[in-house]
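Action item from last meeting closed. Structure (209 res):
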C-alpha cells in the first residue's frame, strides 16, 4: 500500500520514514534520523520529497488512497445493496488485518497531535470518498426494504470505527493478559463473525427483534 518493494532509493526513503513517523510522529521525526535508518544520503530525501512535510504527506496519501482503492473494488455492480455493503465491510476487515502494523501507529499519533494532516489528506482521499460510495448503497437498501431506516453516515462511521479500534487496540495490548484471551487462534474470523452478526441484527429488518 505504501512500499513499492523494488529496492529503489525512493522506496528506502519511504520505508525509513514510515519507521520514524510510527515511532515519533510528525513533530518528533527528524530527516537526519530517516536518512540514518534508510542508510541514505540526506540530500536524496530532499531531492525526492523536498521537505519532511512533503514526505509525510506522501505517506499519508499513499495509505489513504490505497485503502480507498481496495474498498472501492469490493463494491461490485449488479449485487444487491445489502450484499455490496457486506462485501465492503468484509474487505475493510481483511485490509486492516493485513496492513503494515506501523501504519496504525502513524495514524494514532496523527490523530493525537490534532489531526491537521488527517483533515488535509485523509478526509478528501478516504473518508469523503467512502461516504460517497456507501451512502447511496445504504439508501437504495432502505428504499428496497432490505435495510432499516438508519442514518447512513452514522451507521458507516460506527461500523468502521469498530473495525479500526479493534486493530488499533492490538498495539497497546501486545504482551498483556488480554492479548492471550482475545488475539489468539483464528481471532480475525471470530471478530468477523461476531461483527457481522451485530451488524445484521442492527441494520436488517427484523434483526434483533
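Sequence:
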Amino acid at each position: 500500500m505504501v512500499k513499492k518493494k523494488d529496492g529503489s532509493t525512493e522506496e528506502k526513503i519511504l520505508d525509513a520514514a514510515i519507521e520514524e513517523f510510527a515511532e515519533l510522529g510528525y513533530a518528533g521525526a527528524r530527516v537526519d534520523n530517516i536518512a540514518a535508518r534508510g542508510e541514505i544520503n540526506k540530500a536524496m530525501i530532499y531531492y525526492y520529497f523536498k521537505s519532511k512535510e512533503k514526505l509525510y504527506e506522501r505517506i499519508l496519501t499513499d495509505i489513504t488512497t490505497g485503502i480507498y482503492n481496495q474498498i472501492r473494488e469490493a463494491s461490485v455492480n449488479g449485487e444487491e445493496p445489502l450484499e455490496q455493503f457486506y462485501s465492503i465491510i468484509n474487505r475493510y476487515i481483511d485490509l486492516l488485518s493485513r496492513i503494515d502494523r506501523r501504519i496504525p501507529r502513524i495514524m494514532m499519533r496523527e490523530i493525537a497531535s490534532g489531526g491537521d494532516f488527517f483533515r488535509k489528506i485523509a478526509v478528501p482521499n478516504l473518508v469523503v470518498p467512502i461516504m460517497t460510495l456507501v451512502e447511496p448503497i445504504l439508501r437504495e437498501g432502505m428504499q428496497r426494504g432490505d435495510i432499516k431506516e438508519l442514518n447512513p453516515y452514522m451507521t458507516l462511521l460506527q461500523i468502521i470505527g469498530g473495525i479500526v479500534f479493534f486493530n488499533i487496540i492490538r498495539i497497546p495490548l501486545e504482551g498483556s493478559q488480554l492479548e492471550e484471551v482475545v488475539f489468539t487462534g483464528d481471532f480475525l474470523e471470530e471478530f468477523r463473525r461476531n461483527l457481522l452478526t451485530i451488524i445484521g441484527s442492527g441494520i436488517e429488518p427484523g434483526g434483533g427483534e
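Note appended to the action item: The first helix runs from residue 9 to 28.
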